[in-house]
């Protein structure tokens, strides 16, 4: 291909294989109190990493990221190694091509940080490798909001003296500050009890050690371990009724367990978040605890991440992680090494033994997720029990690995009379079973036992995709007892290594239920054979270039690192149930159409309260005219049903006394997305990107409604997003009688993975403030007053000002409150919900006719209810339309604004900064909110009835982190970019433009007078000069304008000969309308993108080509055209390319050596066709 006599090669950039550089390594100083291992040494990318000797094993701790890490470990007491075991086995380290054994050393590459255990057969001491991700949120050691225990409070980092006082002072100072970070630098700190208050974080820097002394006089005695006769303390805990506490970093919490037992038999629960909410634990290593170690106790909304609990295997009662009487807890990416249970949940009694000082009363254990954890124990790897003094429900264990245990997975109900229900073990792996616990050495144990402290039932236990590499020497029991039966235990896809397949019977899995266990079944296995899951998935695109094109990859700078990016998408399965469509018609007494919220409210009342026996399964309602049901409803032999309901009654009411709801089947075919149904072809085509049919759209709509139904039923919502309005951290007052609240946007959609995904995202909405209508009205009017005064006031100081509102204030408040729902309580009567239609002045003096005489509202309330109005002269609300014959006027003081009403009007400009600040979340906060939200769907009976499975872990995609290209300023001054920022001080633009003709309009002369304006003009010209721009020292003209009539200025502007005139406009505060007028008046140049019309819309497809016009790819031009609807091929591409080439030829002195062509928006099914035809079109253009 020739262009101006030069050879041109065409580079099509779809996917490049990029080089991976060595990882960024963070290693931590080994505290002097910890001896180095005599069994192992270790390097990471050639850098020595300390290996610490411990009780029965050794461990190493470091962090890395931004690439893969090359690990080399040496067994120093061996001369040669012939074999090794690396757990998790599913990671496949032994089978990796770059893993090698050389004499007494093992080398391998770790692609991403995680925890693993290395064992050499023959009894050699194990090595535990704790590889953490890089610290992205490590605080500075000093500064605002940082309370350093050494520099600020005199703690002794040498370990010589007790530092309890210093830590207490730091906590107190941080709390008095309204929150902050207590910073612990490297060093050893013997310390007493640490109690963390609300909004305070404890950061342990790498190399720091908090050490338990084991001396009872240094601590409070909080409990007695009756089974062992030992006293103990809650060492590091939270203040009761606290919130927003975090413990993080890469330091160590040392319980000094062996010393504590040997000397005084006084022990500690190491870290105990107790009676707290929104607690986070992320990173510190906990070691050598002689009691339960990390205990989440009577708390909620807790995240435990990257916890490393390394206890001795020579002492018992040292559980690693226990969730006790708590709700909404996630434990992830952690390792638990202990002789007792590694990961468990417990519901404890009140006021006995270790619970003697627990606050409050027994609480249930609900909504707990353990995911991606590694267990090493002499007891249970993952367990529910033994205590069940309160209900334990919705406990999920996912993607966990049991390295060694007596029992891999279990539910042991021994104490308490409450129920265990809804326990799920999913994608778990059992590597080795050793020893025995209560006579069990098995991969599974589900049993009730009478410990003389009550018995209770167990039900709804599921085990799915379990990989068993060691089945154990005893049967896996499922044993109920009298008065405590076990029911509904489901197993599926149980893979047994010795068979190298899924088991086909309970006997093959050695699962043996007794006579008190019912419904223990092995479900049909998946058609796909078991595959060892890959820890890191990579995504690539295979694109073959035509031989005639030359790809000069060696000329491209390759400087990118690989990593896995976590998305906000969750895989969701297609329902396996057949759904019937029903038409929903609602008729009111007045024939007035109902709002969507009201329709949902009435239908849910009908099927949940009035006729729950008829509506089973329950209807999934879209809030308009269609509902779906996972089965055929029975209306007493009739295909349709008619019901008249009132929200005030639990039974059907007479016609005319409520809303009549008619439910009837539609003429549409049943929706059957199962693989055996022809319907599934349409869904498959949609997921493959080939076509979108009406059936496929119906299926997606159905799934969308199923997923959204439960959250929208229980929370304020706008259909697509819901807003819980529960967490005070997610609510903020902004004045004007309004609050901001955070919510979750939810959408089911097809993905490039040929599967459906549920996308969740955080969102923000404004809601009316809940409370007394008088306070809401005052707040709104006060904010208006502050706006006029240029400040943000709280409101009028005296309620009597509601008697003297100006006409403008009255109308503004009426517009604000119109259509707001309020609860109106007649004195001595039941509350009623009403909608505000308007306001009236002096409500108490408003007159109406009653019993043929005129009476005031105040007199009516006194005569009818004995209620004397407090403020008869202030405004009141009108519950009737303005033109109604009978006006219903109610005093403001009897009304309360209902909670959770979305404010759908435009927010005042004055609150825009607050809205932006509130809506902006850090990526980690957004991720945590989304992960908390995904747990909600497992409680939805609509999802459960549909047999939809929603993955609890977000999708990860392989990504490349590209380096920032340097920026080029004048005189070839190259500036490196650091995380999106760079220093522009004393730098001039590479190619500065001139501004010779410019003008200024000042719409705020009261605040910016002419003298001030001249000063600002001079400063502007000077600043432009520093950057290399040539600017005329004075504007062509300067005009003062009236902000109330801006068009009079704009219409009279005459640029004269200056066609490139630039106009600067100075605006006053809070001038939304004026700003809009200015923006509309100016010109704007838009870039275009290719887009197709919506389904069923017969409009053309828009095509475009955007191309660079300079050698630095910083200037662009665009071409645009139209073609037949939904045609993917760009029909005018040959002409576009030719015109682009000609334009570039007019601007640059010589042609480029390559053309890089990026093509977006092509589905997999059209890939080859588009590639072949469009590359040919480009080739033809370059030959012309």
From TrEMBL:
UniProt GO MF annotations: polygalacturonase activity; RNA binding
Record key words, sorted: Cell wall biogenesis/degradation, Glycosidase, Hydrolase, Signal
UniProt KW Iron keyword: no
Name recorded for this polypeptide: Piwi domain-containing protein
Domain Piwi, residue spans: 1083-1184
Domain of life, source organism: Eukaryota
UniProt entry tagged with the keyword RNA-binding: no
Gene3D superfamilies, per database record: 3.40.50.2300, paz domain (2.170.260.10), Ribonuclease H-like superfamily/Ribonuclease H (3.30.420.10), Single-stranded right-handed beta-helix, Pectin lyase-like (2.160.20.10)
UniProt record similarity statement: Belongs to the glycosyl hydrolase 28 family.
GO biological process, one term: cell wall organization
Transmembrane segments: none
Signal peptide: 1-22
């Amino acid at each position: 291909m020739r262009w101006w006599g030069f050879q041109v090669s065409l580079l099509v950039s779809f996917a490049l294989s990029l080089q991976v550089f060595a990882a960024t390594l963070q290693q931590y100083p080994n505290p002097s109190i910890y001896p180095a291992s005599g069994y192992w040494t270790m390097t990471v990318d050639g850098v020595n990493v300390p290996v610490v000797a411990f009780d029965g094993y050794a461990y190493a701790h470091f962090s890395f990221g931004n690439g893969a890490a090359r690990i080399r470990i040496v067994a120093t007491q061996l001369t040669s190694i012939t074999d090794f075991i690396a757990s998790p086995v599913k990671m496949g380290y032994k089978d990796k091509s770059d893993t090698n054994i050389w004499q007494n050393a093992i080398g391998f590459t770790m692609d991403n940080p995680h925890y693993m255990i290395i064992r050499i057969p023959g009894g050699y001491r194990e090595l535990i490798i704790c590889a953490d991700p890089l610290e992205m949120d490590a605080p500075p050691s000093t500064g605002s909001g940082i309370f350093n225990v050494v520099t600020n409070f005199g703690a002794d980092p040498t370990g010589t003296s007790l530092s309890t006082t210093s830590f207490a002072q730091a906590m107190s100072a941080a709390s008095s500050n309204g929150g902050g970070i207590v910073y612990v630098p490297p060093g050893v700190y013997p310390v007493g009890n640490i109690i963390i208050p609300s909004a305070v974080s404890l950061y342990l820097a790498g190399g720091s050690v908090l050490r338990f002394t084991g001396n009872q006089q240094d601590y409070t005695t909080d409990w007695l371990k009756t089974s062992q006769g030992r006293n103990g303390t809650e060492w590091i805990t939270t203040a009761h009724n606290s919130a927003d506490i975090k413990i993080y970093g890469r330091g160590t919490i040392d319980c000094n367990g062996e010393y504590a037992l040997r000397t005084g038999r006084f022990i500690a629960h190491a870290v105990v978040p107790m009676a707290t909410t929104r607690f986070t634990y992320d990173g510190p290593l906990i070691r050598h605890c002689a009691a339960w170690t990390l205990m989440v106790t009577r708390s909620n909304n807790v995240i435990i991440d990257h916890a490393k609990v390394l206890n001795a295997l020579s002492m018992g009662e040292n559980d690693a992680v226990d969730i006790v009487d708590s709700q909404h807890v996630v434990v992830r990416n952690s390792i638990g090494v202990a002789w007792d249970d590694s990961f468990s949940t417990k519901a404890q009694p009140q006021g006995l033994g270790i619970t003697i000082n627990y606050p409050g009363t027994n609480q249930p254990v609900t909504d707990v997720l353990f995911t991606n954890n590694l267990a090493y124990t002499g007891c249970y790897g993952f367990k529910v029990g033994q205590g069940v003094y309160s209900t334990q429900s919705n406990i999920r264990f996912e993607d966990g690995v049991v390295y060694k245990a007596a029992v891999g997975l279990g539910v042991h109900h021994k104490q308490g009379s409450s129920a265990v229900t809804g326990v799920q073990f999913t994608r778990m792996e059992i590597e080795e079973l050793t020893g025995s616990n209560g006579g069990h050495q098995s991969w599974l144990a589900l049993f009730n036992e009478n410990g003389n402290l009550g018995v209770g039932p167990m039900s709804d236990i599921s085990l799915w995709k379990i990989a068993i590499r060691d089945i154990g020497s005893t049967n896996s029991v499922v044993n109920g007892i009298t008065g405590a039966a076990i029911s509904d235990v489901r197993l599926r896809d149980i893979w047994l290594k010795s068979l190298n397949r899924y088991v086909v019977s309970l006997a093959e899995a050695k699962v043996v239920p007794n006579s008190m266990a019912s419904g223990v079944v092995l479900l049909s296995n998946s058609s796909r054979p078991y595959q060892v899951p890959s820890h890191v998935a990579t995504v690539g695109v295979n694109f073959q270039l035509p031989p005639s094109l030359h790809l000069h990859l060696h000329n491209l700078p390759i400087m990118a690192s690989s990593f896995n990016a976590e998305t906000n998408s969750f895989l969701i399965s297609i329902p396996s149930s057949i759904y019937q469509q029903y038409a929903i018609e609602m008729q009111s007494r007045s024939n007035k159409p109902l709002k969507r919220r009201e329709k949902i409210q009435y239908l849910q009342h009908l099927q949940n309260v009035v006729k729950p026996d008829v509506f089973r399964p329950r209807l999934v309602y879209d809030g308009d005219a269609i509902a779906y049901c996972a089965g055929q409803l029975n209306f007493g032999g009739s295909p349709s049903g008619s019901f008249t309901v009132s929200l005030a009654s639990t039974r059907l009411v007479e016609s005319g006394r409520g809303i009549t709801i008619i439910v009837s089947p539609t003429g549409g075919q049943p929706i059957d997305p199962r693989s055996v149904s022809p319907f599934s072809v349409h869904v498959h085509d949609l997921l493959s990107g080939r076509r979108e049919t009406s059936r496929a759209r119906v299926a997606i709509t159905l799934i969308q409604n199923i997923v959204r139904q439960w959250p929208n039923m229980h929370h304020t919502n706008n259909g697509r997003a819901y807003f819980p309005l529960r967490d005070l951290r997610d609510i903020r007052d902004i004045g004007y009688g309004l609050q901001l609240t955070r919510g979750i946007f939810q959408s089911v959609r097809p993905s490039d993975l040929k599967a459906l995904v549920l996308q969740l995202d955080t969102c923000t909405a404004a809601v009316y403030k809940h409370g007394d209508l008088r306070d809401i009205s005052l707040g709104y009017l006060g904010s208006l007053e502050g706006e006029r005064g240029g400040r943000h006031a709280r409101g009028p100081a005296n309620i009597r000002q509601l008697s003297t509102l100006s006409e403008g204030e009255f109308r503004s408040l009426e517009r604000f409150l119109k259509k707001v729902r309020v609860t109106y309580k007649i004195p001595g009567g039941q509350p009623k919900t009403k909608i505000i239609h308007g306001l009236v002045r002096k409500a108490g003096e408003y007159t109406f006719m009653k019993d043929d005489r005129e009476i005031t509202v105040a007199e009516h309330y006194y005569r009818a209810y004995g209620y004397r109005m407090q403020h008869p002269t202030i405004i009141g609300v009108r519950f009737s339309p303005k033109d109604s014959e009978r006006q219903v006027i109610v005093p403001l003081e009897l009304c309360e604004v209902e909670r959770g009403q979305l404010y759908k009007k435009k927010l005042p400009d004055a609150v825009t900064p607050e809205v932006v600040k509130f809506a902006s979340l850090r990526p980690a906060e957004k991720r945590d909110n989304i992960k908390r939200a995904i747990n909600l769907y497992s409680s939805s009976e609509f999802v459960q009835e549909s047999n939809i499975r929603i993955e609890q872990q977000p999708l990860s995609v392989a990504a490349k982190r590209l380096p920032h290209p340097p920026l080029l300023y004048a005189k070839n001054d190259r500036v490196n970019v650091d995380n999106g920022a760079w220093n522009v001080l004393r730098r001039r633009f590479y190619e500065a433009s001139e501004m010779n003709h410019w003008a200024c309009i000042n719409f705020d002369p009261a605040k910016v007078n002419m003298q001030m304006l001249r000063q600002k003009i001079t400063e502007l010209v000077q600043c432009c000069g520093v950057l290399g721009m040539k600017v005329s020292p004075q504007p062509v003209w300067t005009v003062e304008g009236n902000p109330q009539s801006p068009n009079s200025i704009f219409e009279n502007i005459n640029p004269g000969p200056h066609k490139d005139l630039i106009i600067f406009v100075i605006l006053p505060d809070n001038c939304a309308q004026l700003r809009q007028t200015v923006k509309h008046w100016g010109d704007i140049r838009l870039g275009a993108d290719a887009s197709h019309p919506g389904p069923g819309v017969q409009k053309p497809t828009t095509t475009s080509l955007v191309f660079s016009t300079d050698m630095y790819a910083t200037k662009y031009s665009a071409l645009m055209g139209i073609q037949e609807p939904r045609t993917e091929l760009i029909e005018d591409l040959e002409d576009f390319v030719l015109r682009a080439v000609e334009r570039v030829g007019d601007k640059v002195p010589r042609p480029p050596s390559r053309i890089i062509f990026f093509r977006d928006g092509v589905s997999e099914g059209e890939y080859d066709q588009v590639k072949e035809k469009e590359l040919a079109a480009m080739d033809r253009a370059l030959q012309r």
